[in-house]
Write a structure and sequence with these properties.
Blueprint (H helix, E strand, L loop, with lengths): L3 E4 L2 E3 L5 E7 L8 E7 L6 E7 L4 E3 L7 E6 L4 E6 L8 E9 L2 E4 L3 E5 L2
Parallel strand pairs: 2-11
Antiparallel strand pairs: 1-3, 3-8, 4-5, 4-9, 5-6, 7-8, 9-10, 9-11
């Protein structure tokens, strides 16, 4: 069973930075893409960013130029560097890994942007 374990969430002031990490139990290049979603209370999980097996990255418009997704194959880890954080970025962030038509999810890590 594929497991994804996120870390790096926390409380940060507006304009601050956080770096999320997601350790995957398998070789990340086994997946078509790995990435991040987020879910605010009462909302569905929304796409944030992804990186495919070829290294192509995608971002939702709300985080372009502020967030950067990267990966380390040796460490089987996916990162999300989040800069210039805004209060509206406050939510739970989930790591995801896609293979064919299946998506695996981590347990989530809370990010809170507040004074």
């Amino acid at each position: 069973q594929v497991q994804l374990l996120e870390s790096g969430g926390g409380l940060v002031q507006p304009g601050g930075s956080l770096k999320l990490a997601c350790v995957v139990s398998e070789n990340i290049f086994n997946f078509n893409a790995v990435g991040w979603h987020r879910q605010a209370p009462g909302n569905e999980r929304d796409f944030v960013a992804s990186i495919n097996v070829g290294g192509k990255t995608q971002y939702t418009d709300a985080v372009k130029d502020r967030f950067t997704i990267s990966r380390d194959g040796v460490k089987k880890t996916v990162y999300l560097q989040m800069n210039n954080l805004k209060p509206e970025d406050t939510t739970v962030y989930y790591c995801t890994a896609n293979i064919l038509n299946k998506r695996y999810w981590g347990q989530g890590t809370q990010v809170t942007v507040s004074t």
